[in-house]
Amino acid sequence: QVQLVESGGGLVQAGGSLRLSCAASRRILGRYISYDMGWFRQTPGKEREFVAAITSSGSKTSYNDSVKGRFTISRDNAENTVYLQMNNLKAEDTAVYYCAAKPAGGYSGNYATYYNYWGQGTQVTVSS
């Protein structure tokens, strides 16, 4: 079982930056089990959308085309924390952002259905 707690959301003007953090309740890189981590977002009436993912070692990352070049996912395995640095924010980035974890390997980290654990979400609002 992994509990995830997001923080760092808020209100920002278009063109601004925010850094989201996701703290895990247990080691996300361990001897017996490690976790790939992802960020997703959701707006009312829409399905949860993939934003970014990172493998357990941090060696591979993937991004939604809409955020490439603006967002960066990273992880600090010693601190059991994953980050999402968001720059040049746009109004269309407004959403609730969720952190997620799944056992390393296996299916692609780009799909929400493969993640076992989710945080409660943090609201990001970008004013234009």
Number of strands: 11
Number of helices: 0
Q: Please tell me how large the radius of gyration is.
A: 14 Å
> Strand content of the residues, in percent?
over 45%
What share of the residues lie within helices?
under 10%
Distance between the termini: 39 Å
* Low-confidence segments: none
Instruction: Give the class from helix and strand content and strand pairing.
Output: mainly beta
Give a quick account of the main beta sheet: strands, pairing sense, barrel closure: 7 strands, mixed
Which geometry do the CA atoms define? globular
Q: What attributes does this structure have?
A:
128 residues, mainly beta, seven-stranded mixed sheet, 11 strands
Commentary on this structure:
The chain has 128 residues and is an all-beta fold. The protein is built from no helices and eleven strands. β7 and β8 form a beta hairpin. The radius of gyration is 14 Å and the shape is globular. The protein starts with a strand and ends with a strand. The mean pLDDT is 95.
